[in-house]
Write a structure and sequence with these properties.
- It is a single chain.
- This protein folds into 2 domains: 2-159, 3-Layer(aba) Sandwich (Alpha/beta knot); 167-223, Orthogonal Bundle (Trp Operon Repressor, Chain A), CATH 1.10.1270.
- The chain contains 9 helices and 9 strands.
- By secondary structure, the protein is of the alpha/beta class.
- The chain starts with a strand and ends with a helix.
Length: 224
C-alpha cells in the first residue's frame, strides 16, 4: 500500500511515521507513506501558495496552480489512486471508510488549509472530501493522520493478528466491551468473576451483554 500526503507542513508527519503501529508498518515495508510538500510546486518566486478570495471575506484560499501540479506529479506514479481532500464539509469518516481505504492499493490525501482550496481543484481533481468530525482545525494534517492510522491498522500484517481487529469497537456496529488485566484486585476494585472463570462460553456471553449495554448507554444511534 502506498499513500501520498500532500501538505504544507510535511515536518508534522516526522514523529507519526516513526511511532507505534504506523512506524513498524513503514519499517517492515507493509506500507509506504510519503509526505509531499505542496509549496515545492509553487511557481511564485516566494513559493506563495495562498491568495485573497474572490468576492471578499476573511482569510486566504490555497491557489490552484501548486495543488494542481502537486497532484499531477503524484498521479504520474499512480494514475488510479483516488484523491481525498480533508475538509470540514466532507462526508463523515467512519469505520466503513477506513475499511475502504485499507483495501486501496494507492491513495492520495490532500491536506486542506486556510479557508479552503480553490474550488476548481476540487471539481477537476478531487474524488472525495472527508471530515473527521463536526469541528474546524487549523489544517488537514491531523485528519490525514487519523485516516491513515485507521486504515493501516486494518492491515493484518500491521497488527500481527487479525483477531485483534475482530473484537473492537465498530467492527460489528457496536462499541467494545470493558477490558481488564492484572492484578485481579486493584484499590478495592475487583475484576468481574466471570473473566476469571475460564468458561469461554460465559465470557463470550458476558462480553456481548456488556458491549450492548455500553452501546445503548453511550451510542444508542448505532443500535438503530
Amino acid at each position: 500500500m502506498k499513500i501520498y500526503i500532500l501538505t504544507l507542513f510535511p515536518e508534522m508527519f516526522n514523529g507519526f511515521l516513526r511511532s507505534s503501529i504506523i512506524g513498524k508498518a513503514v519499517q517492515n515495508g507493509i506500507v509506504q507513506i510519503t509526505p509531499v510538500n505542496i509549496r515545492d510546486f509553487s511557481r511564485d518566486k516566494h513559493k506563495r501558495v495562498d491568495d485573497y478570495p474572490y468576492g471578499g471575506g476573511a482569510g486566504m484560499v490555497m491557489t490552484p496552480q501548486p495543488l494542481y501540479d502537486a497532484i499531477a506529479s503524484v498521479k504520474k506514479k499512480c494514475p488510479d489512486a483516488p484523491v481525498i481532500l480533508t475538509s470540514p464539509r466532507g462526508e463523515p469518516f467512519v469505520q466503513e471508510k477506513a475499511v475502504q481505504l485499507s483495501e486501496t492499493e494507492h491513495l492520495i490525501i490532500v491536506c486542506g488549509h486556510y479557508e479552503g482550496i480553490d474550488q476548481r481543484i476540487i471539481d477537476s481533481m478531487v474524488d472525495q472530501e472527508i471530515s473527521i468530525g463536526d469541528y474546524v482545525l487549523t489544517g488537514g494534517e491531523l485528519p490525514a493522520m487519523v485516516m491513515v492510522d485507521a486504515a493501516v491498522r486494518l492491515l493484518p500484517e500491521a497488527v500481527g493478528s487479525s483477531r485483534s481487529l475482530e473484537e473492537e469497537s465498530f467492527t460489528e456496529g457496536i462499541l467494545e466491551y470493558p477490558q481488564y488485566t492484572r492484578p485481579a484486585e486493584f484499590m478495592g476494585m475487583d475484576v468481574p468473576e466471570v473473566l476469571l472463570s475460564g468458561n469461554h462460553k460465559r465470557i463470550e456471553e458476558w462480553r456481548r451483554k456488556k458491549a450492548l449495554e455500553t452501546t445503548r448507554k453511550r451510542r444508542p444511534d448505532l443500535l438503530e
